[in-house]
Automatic annotation (TrEMBL):
Belongs to the FAM167 (SEC) family. This is Protein FAM167A. Pfam families: FAM167. InterPro entries: FAM167, FAM167_domain. The gene is Fam167a.
Length: 85
C-alpha cells in the first residue's frame, strides 16, 4: 500500500510539473504574439509617418518640451494644478 502511495505521489508530482511547464510555454507564446503585434504596429506607424508630412495625432496631445523642462506634468495639467519638480 505504501509503495502504491509513493508511486501515485511521484506520478502526481510529474503531472504537476508537466502542467506548470505547459502553462509557462503557453504564456511565452502569448507574450511572443503580443510583442510581434506591437512590433508590426510600430513598423506600420513608421511607414505611415514616412508617407505623411504631418505629425501623428498622438504627439499633439503630449506636453511641449518647455513645459516638461520646468517640471509641469500631464497629470498636473489634467487636474488643473501646476507644480515645479
Amino acid at each position: 500500500m505504501r509503495l502504491q502511495d509513493q508511486q501515485l505521489a511521484r506520478q502526481l508530482m510529474r503531472l504537476r510539473g508537466d502542467i506548470n511547464k505547459l502553462r509557462i510555454e503557453q504564456t511565452c507564446r502569448l507574450h511572443r504574439r503580443m510583442l510581434n503585434d506591437a512590433t508590426c504596429e510600430l513598423e506600420e506607424r513608421d511607414e505611415l509617418s514616412d508617407l505623411f508630412c504631418d505629425s501623428p495625432l498622438a504627439s499633439s496631445f503630449s506636453l511641449s518640451t518647455p513645459l516638461k523642462l520646468i517640471g509641469v506634468t500631464k497629470m498636473n495639467i489634467n487636474s488643473r494644478r501646476f507644480s515645479l519638480c
